[in-house]
Amino acid sequence: MAPPAGQRAAVAEAAGADGAPPQQQRGFGSTISGIVRIAVFWYFASKFFSPKQKPMDPTAPSQLMTNLFHKGESLDMWFYLSEQEKFNDFGNDRALYWHETNIPYAVWTPESIRTKSLTYYPSETLQNNGSLYAHIFFARSGFPIDPTDPEYQPLNSFSRTHAVATYFPKQKKNKKKSLLGSPKDSDESEPEVEKVGDKKSDPKEEVPVEWISLWKPNVTINLVDDFTHYSQNGVPPNIAPHLLVEPTTGNYYPTIYFNEFWLLRDKFIPVNETVSELPLNLEISPISMMKWQLFQQVDQSFQMQRSYGSMLDGESDELKKVFLEGNPYLLGITMFVSMLHSVFDFLAFKNDIQFWNKNKSMEGLSAKSVVLNFICQFVIFLYLLDNDTSWMILASSGVGVCIEFWKIGKAMRIEVDRSGMIPRLRFHDRESYASNKTKEYDDIAIKFLSYVLLLLVIGLSIYSLAYERHKSWYSWILSSLTSCVYMFGFIMMCPQLFINYKLKSVAHLPWRQMTYKFLNTIIDDLFAFVIKMPILHRLSVFRDDVIFLIYLYQRWVYPVDKTRVNEFGFGGEDETAEKKLITEKEEEDKKTN
Question: Which residues form the signal peptide (predicted)?
Answer without folding.
Answer: none
